[in-house]
Amino acid sequence: MILYLDCANGVSGDMLAAALLALADARSDERGTLATVVRPALQAAGIDPQVAGVADVQRGRFAAQTFEVAEGPGFSTFDELIAAVRGSELDQAVVESVAAVAERMADAEYAVHGPSDSHLHELAGLDTAVDLIAVAALLHTLAPDQVLASPPALGDGTIETAHGRLAVPAPAVLALLAGLPTAGGAAVASTAGRAADGPQAGLPPDESPESEPLGELTTPTGAALLAHFATGFGPLPAGRIAGVGYGAGSREIAGRPNLLRAVLIDETGAAPAGADQAALSGAGQAAPAPDDAFELLETNIDDSTAEVLAHAADVLRESGAVDVWFTDALMKKGRPGVVLHALVPAGERDAVAAAIFRETSTFGLRLTAVGRLHLEERRESVRLGGHPVAVRLGYLDGHLVTASPEYEDCRALAAAVGRPLKVVYEAAQATAWSRFGGV
Predict the structure, then answer these.
(1) What's the rounded Cα separation, in Å, for the pair 292 and 359?
(2) CB 319 within 8 A of CB 352
(3) What is the CB neighbour count within 10 angstroms for residue 198?
(4) pLDDT at site 161
(5) Which residues of 237-268 are buried (b: 16+ CB within 10 A; e: fewer)?
(6) Which letter, b or e, does each residue of 356-390 get, where b requires 16 or more Cβ atoms within 10 Å of its Cβ?
């Protein structure tokens, strides 16, 4: 099953929780996911389960529901929230998801405001923590194979924050969505957002006057949840519609329904003709290439300096080679030399070959078609002492089998905290195993 999130009108934590609740209840014979999933999760986290509730509403002539949280004091810092959920009785998968999203939000706050802003205002109220726990618990219950989304609309105008009046989108939203596609500011509705009496039924398009700003459509909590759970962005995928849920935001927006639509799709197993698969692959996470779609380019070199060869390797990677390495060789007339190896996607062969001819002294290349087996790869980050460290994760049959922290991040952190590089590397690796090993 694919869970598709239509974010043509933005995304917030409460809208996502409401849409998932509506979707889960639509699939069951008896409404009650709030009582059977969300409230038990809150109780396990040490939060009064009665603070959360739902209400039926109308937004832009559409029936939907809101997810409402009673006012109450939240957590002072994201570290406090993370410590609370890790020490709770929540299901481990929910704990790891909540902690990962909270760390994303902490990194965004740190990037925008710096380390001096120790009290993070997004957590001032209880609703943020409740939204994170509710969404993580609901997704764990729905258990989709994949979460896809449309690029989220961000809104426009200004918003009042604890840091004063800021332009929309807020800096934290931009930091959280860095590297991901968005629909921009006052974006028009997607193909899922045509007027109900128009050629395609769905949510009506934006008809608000240009002089009236939309305000904030995507919140920091919504952006963090989307960035963590969505593995790709694009149009509604092909398949059988298994369920639909509508989550409403708290505001009425003139000419636009303030709704998030969650659609559960049973895949047909075949991509539609002409589908743009690149649009569905996650940002920075290319889909695995077919096993026979690579070539190995090789050449013997005995008349170049180490500096020239090192530069050539960098150029080859920039030209499309997925890996470049050298092996020692004994050349003709007893001269020491090297064999240059470049693993290249078939479509990049000509560009990489041209770079080899330009950057080295070789007159010819050997070409070998090769297959390749590789792990499912994910890029995540962990936090050590308030500093983010990127990690590369490899999964086999859904189980984490290798975790590699990024060298440059570890080196910078080691210098910043005055600790040996190997200590920082091992700590980042252990944290990655703890956070992602059970996924």
Answers:
(1) 27
(2) yes
(3) 10
(4) 59
(5) bebeeebbbbbbbeeebeebbbbbbbbbbeee
(6) beebbebeebeeeeeebeeeeebebbbbbebbbbb
Encoding tokens for residue 249? 């935001």
Q: Which residue has the tokens 């509730």?
A: 53
Residues 295, 304: Cα–Cα separation, whole Å: 24
Question: In whole numbers, what is the pLDDT of the chain averaged over residues?
Answer: 80
> How far apart are the C-alpha atoms of 344 and 347, rounded to whole Å?
8
State the burial class of residue 214 (Cβ atoms within 10 Å of its Cβ: 0-12, 13-18, 19+): buried
The answer on pLDDT for 61 being more than 80 is no
- Closest C-alpha among 193, 218, 151 to residue 10: 218
In 3D space, the residue among 75, 76, 79 whose CA is nearest the CA of residue 119 turns out to be 76
Using a cut of 0.85, tell me whether the model's pTM lies above it. no
To 10 degrees, what angle do helices 92-113 and 126-142 make?
140
The strand pairing partners of 244, in sequence order, are 263
Q: Is the pLDDT of residue 77 over 90?
A: no
pLDDT in tens, 345-390: 988 999 999 999 999 999 999 999 888 788 888 888 888 877 889 9
Find the DSSP H helices in 28-125.
33, 39-44, 78-86, 92-113
**CA atoms within 13 Å, Cβ hemisphere of 418:** 0
What is the set of domains in the chain, with CATH numbers? 2-280 (no CATH), 294-370 (3.30.70.1380), 376-436 (3.10.20.300)
Q: What percent of the chain has pLDDT over 90?
A: 27
Alpha carbon distances (Å) from 357 to 308, 381, 437: 13, 38, 44
Question: Predicted confidence band at 225 (pLDDT cuts at 50, 70, 90)?
Answer: very high
Q: For residue 162, what pLDDT band results from cuts at 50, 70 and 90?
A: low
Residue 333 confidence class, pLDDT cut points 50, 70, 90:
confident
- Rounded (to 5) percent helix, strand, coil in the chain: 35, 25, 35
